[in-house]
Design goal:
Blueprint lengths: L7 E2 L2 E2 L4 H7 L7 H9 L3 E2 L4 E5 L7 E5 L8 E6 L11 H5 L1 H6 L7 H12 L7 H4 L14 H5 L6 H4 L2 H18 L15 H14 E3 L15 E3 L24 H6 L3 H5 L5 E3 L7 E2 L6 E5 L3 E6 L8 E4 L6 H8 L5 E2 L5 E2 L5 E4 H12 L3 H13 L5 E4 L7 H11 L2 H10 L9 H16 L5 H10 L3 H57 L1
Parallel strand pairs: 10-13
Antiparallel strand pairs: 1-2, 3-6, 4-5, 5-13, 6-12, 7-9, 8-11, 11-12, 14-15, 16-17
Bound molecules: S-adenosylmethionine (SAM).
Length: about 525
C-alpha cells in the first residue's frame, strides 16, 4: 500500500503530488451523492480541478479544494439558474396562488422563501432539491441558538440586539401559520408540528442567513453591456466588483433576521425578496478575511464560479462573505476569523467597535452640565442633517472626525449654535482638549460595557471550555483592542494639547516678563 504524507500548512497541502492531493487530505469527496445530484440536474463541475472535502473546523470544515493548480479566470463549476432555490423557482407560490401569496405578505422579507424551503423539504424525494436538502446543515453555532448564559458573554458587542429572534418568530406566527393553516391540501396537517414547526422555521432561516445569494433577474438589455457577466458574492453587503461595463451583479444577500428586522424599512424597499436564492454548490465555499480566490458570476441561464486568482493545488477555494467583522460573521455564519493583524497580534482586521451617540451625549452632558432639552435639540438637528447615531471605529485606530464634530456641536455656546444652524454645517472636527476629554471618558465607559477586560479575555481564551464562549471572547476582544488603541491615541493627543497649551502660556508670559524686566531696568 502506498504511504501518504499528510502535511498541512494552513489550508494548503504540501509535500505531495497534485494527483495525491485528494488522498492526502484524507479526502475522498465528502458529498458524492450531492455531486451526482448536482450533475444530474445540469450543474457542471470541473472535477479534474475541484473537489469537496473536509478541512479543519477552523478552516471552515467542509469546503472546496483545488486538486491541481488552477489559473485565474477558470470556470470551476456552473449552476443553471433553475437549480437555484427561490420563490421564483419553487412551484409553491403558483400553487398557493400569486394573489393569495401577496395577501399573506409572503412576497415581503424572507417568510416566502422560508415557506418554500419548508414545503420543498416536505416533498421528500419528489422535490427537485431533495439532493440539496440532504447536505444542508441542521444545527448552527450562531447566537440565535445560544443560551441566555452564553449570550451574556456577548454583552457590550452589538450582536445580541441584532439577533432578532423575537421579530423572526412574529413573522412565523403572523404570516406563516395563517398561510399554512389556510391550505391543508398543500401543508399536510400531520406535518405542522414537524416540517412546519418554529424550530424548522429557524433552521431554514439560518440556512438562508448563512448560505443564500442575491440573484437578480436577467434583464435582456444587459446582454449588450460589456461581456454580459456580473458577479455574485456571498454575504450581505458584500463587496461587488463588477467586470468593466458588466451589469449589476447579484450579491449574496443578507439573511433571515436582518431582513425580518428591516421589513417595511428602507432596505426592503430596495431589495426584491424574490432575488434571494439558495445556490447549490456555490454555497459549499467557505470564506476567510482577505482570502477570496473565487467568485460567482452570472449569465442569462447560468451562474458560474470562476477563480479570481491563481489557486495552487491543495489550496482551499475561498469565496468572500464581504470581509465582515467578527460580530457579524458570528451572527450570520457562526464562526469568526482569526488571522495576523497588521499592527501585530491576532484577530480580524475587519473588526468594528461601535459607539452610540447617546453615550457621547450623556458624557458631554455630565462633564459640562448641559440641559437635556438643549442636547436633544442639537442631536435631532445632527440626525436630520444626516449625521450618524452610531460611530464605527476600526483597526486603523483613527479617531473618526464625525465623533469630534458631534462632541463640539454639543458643547458650542448658544450664539455659535445659532450660526451653525443658519449655515447648516456641523462644527469642524477640531481636536481640542475639551473635545478630547469628552472622548476619553466615552471610550473608558464604552470599554466598561463589556463583562471583562482585555487581560481577562486573553487569559480566558487559553482555557475557554466551549466553542461559543471562545467565539464570544474573540468578538469582544477584537472590539476592545480597537477601543483601547483609540483610547491610548486620545490620551496622547490630550497630553500633547495640554503641553502645547502650557508652552503657549509660557511663551505668552515671556514677553510680559521681558517687558517687565526692561521696564524695571529703565526704572533702575
Ligand atoms: C456557505 S457555508 C460554507 C460551506 C460549509 N462549510 C458547509 O459545510 O456546507 C457557510 C458556513 O461555513 C462555515 N465557514 C465558512 N467559512 C468559515 C471559516 N473561515 N471558518 C470557520 N467556518 C467557516 C460556517 O459554518 C458558515 O456558516
Amino acid at each position: 500500500m502506498p504511504t501518504i504524507n499528510k502535511i498541512l500548512v494552513g489550508s494548503r497541502v504540501v509535500g505531495v503530488g497534485r494527483e495525491d492531493a485528494r488522498l492526502a487530505l484524507g479526502m475522498a469527496t465528502v458529498v458524492p451523492e450531492f455531486l451526482d445530484w448536482f450533475q444530474a440536474h445540469q450543474g457542471t463541475i470541473d472535477t479534474s480541478s475541484v473537489d469537496v472535502i473536509n478541512f479543519l473546523p477552523s478552516e471552515g470544515g467542509r469546503g472546496a479544494v483545488a486538486v491541481k493548480d488552477i489559473p485565474e479566470g477558470h470556470v470551476l463549476f456552473t449552476i443553471p439558474r433553475d437549480l437555484t432555490l427561490s420563490t421564483r423557482t419553487s412551484s409553491l407560490p403558483l400553487r398557493f396562488g400569486m394573489g393569495a401569496w401577496k395577501n399573506a405578505k409572503l412576497h415581503e422579507g424572507w417568510a416566502g422563501l422560508i415557506l418554500c424551503m419548508m414545503w420543498e423539504a416536505a416533498q421528500g424525494s419528489s422535490s427537485k432539491w431533495s439532493g440539496y436538502f440532504d447536505i444542508l446543515p441542521t444545527s448552527f453555532d450562531t447566537p440565535m441558538f445560544w443560551t441566555e448564559e452564553e449570550l451574556a458573554e456577548l454583552r457590550g458587542t452589538s450582536v445580541v440586539e441584532k439577533i432578532g429572534r423575537a421579530d423572526a418568530e412574529k413573522d412565523y406566527k403572523e404570516k406563516l401559520i395563517p398561510a399554512i393553516n389556510s391550505r391543508p391540501e398543500l401543508f399536510l396537517p400531520r406535518d405542522i408540528h414537524t416540517r412546519y414547526s418554529v424550530e424548522m422555521y429557524h433552521v431554514m432561516g439560518s440556512r438562508i442567513l448563512s448560505r443564500s445569494f442575491n440573484v437578480e433577474k436577467w434583464a435582456p438589455d444587459e446582454e449588450e453591456v460589456g461581456d454580459g457577466a456580473g458577479d455574485v458574492s456571498m454575504g450581505s453587503g458584500m463587496d461587488v466588483d463588477l467586470p468593466d461595463g458588466a451589469p449589476a451583479p447579484p450579491t449574496h444577500s443578507s439573511h433571515g433576521t436582518d431582513d425580518l428586522e428591516h421589513e417595511g424599512g428602507e432596505e426592503e424597499e430596495q431589495e426584491d425578496s424574490s432575488d434571494i436564492a439558495m445556490v447549490p454548490m456555490a454555497d459549499i465555499l467557505n470564506a476567510r478575511y482577505g482570502s477570496e480566490n473565487a467568485k460567482l458570476f452570472y449569465e442569462e441561464n447560468y451562474l458560474k464560479m470562476i477563480s479570481t486568482r491563481p489557486i495552487k493545488g491543495g489550496e482551499q477555494i475561498w469565496n468572500t462573505y464581504g470581509d465582515l467583522p467578527n460580530a457579524e460573521l458570528l451572527r450570520r455564519y457562526g464562526h469568526v476569523d482569526v488571522i495576523q493583524l497588521p499592527n501585530g497580534g491576532q484577530g480580524n482586521p475587519g473588526d468594528v467597535a461601535e459607539i452610540r451617540a447617546d453615550l457621547i451625549v450623556s458624557v458631554a452632558a455630565e462633564q459640562h452640565s448641559l440641559s437635556t432639552d438643549d442636547t436633544h435639540e442639537r442631536i435631532d438637528w445632527w440626525l436630520e442633517e444626516g449625521g450618524d447615531d452610531v460611530f464605527d471605529l476600526y483597526f486603523d485606530l483613527e479617531i473618526p472626525p464625525s465623533i469630534i464634530s458631534v462632541i463640539r456641536l454639543l458643547l458650542l455656546p448658544d450664539e455659535e449654535w445659532e450660526k451653525i444652524k443658519e449655515k447648516a454645517k456641523p462644527p469642524k472636527p477640531k481636536m481640542d482638549a475639551v473635545a478630547l476629554t469628552v472622548l476619553h471618558e466615552v471610550l473608558q465607559r464604552r470599554l466598561k460595557e463589556y463583562p471583562t477586560s482585555i487581560q481577562d479575555d486573553e487569559q480566558l481564551l487559553m482555557t475557554a471550555p466551549s466553542l461559543n464562549l471562545r467565539h464570544a471572547i474573540i468578538v469582544r476582544l477584537g472590539e476592545k483592542k480597537i477601543l483601547d488603541g483609540i483610547l491610548t491615541k486620545t490620551a496622547a493627543a490630550l497630553a500633547m494639547e495640554s503641553n502645547t497649551k502650557k508652552r503657549k502660556t509660557t511663551h505668552e508670559d515671556r514677553p510680559a516678563a521681558a517687558s517687565t524686566l526692561k521696564k524695571s531696568k529703565r526704572q533702575a
